């Protein structure tokens, strides 16, 4: 169930007997300084009425910035920034590098296998491979065992690109965890893996 969020609601009319009757708007009885003060009274803000299942205290105490998923997203953004600001190949993204280095380590793999190995959904993998192929970093061909299967392999330029950026990725990871002690770094990575890879 979606959480209700505050919205503006003018309660002044209700406080004076309803809209247009005994209120501040269109009421000739309210004039002068008193009328001005009534008309400029701050608008009260209240949360729209819900079904009562979510206590106000729970809404007030909820901070999306500190939600685990949001914190992980912010850490990911910082890590990606640390990597991309030091890339040596124009516009190389983190996902493209992950695909390249996976191919560097394992050799040619099927498109579906590359998707699983890099934790990318199939549509994202297709976009990444298309960009790398356009840049001349990978090549795609049909599997000799199954013509329905596309196999992805590094070109020589792709191999050089992957090798050159391994140190860049390592340095970005070290910079990302710089605020932590050595023990905290090991624990942090171990806990992330426990959450991300619960079956391992």
From TrEMBL:
<dbReference type="Pfam" id="PF01047">
    <property type="entry name" value="MarR"/>
</dbReference>
<dbReference type="InterPro" id="IPR000835">
    <property type="entry name" value="HTH_MarR-typ"/>
</dbReference>
<feature type="domain" description="HTH marR-type">
    <location>
        <begin position="68"/>
        <end position="197"/>
    </location>
</feature>
<protein>
    <submittedName>
        <fullName>Winged helix-turn-helix transcriptional regulator</fullName>
    </submittedName>
</protein>
<dbReference type="InterPro" id="IPR039422">
    <property type="entry name" value="MarR/SlyA-like"/>
</dbReference>
<dbReference type="InterPro" id="IPR036390">
    <property type="entry name" value="WH_DNA-bd_sf"/>
</dbReference>
<dbReference type="InterPro" id="IPR036388">
    <property type="entry name" value="WH-like_DNA-bd_sf"/>
</dbReference>
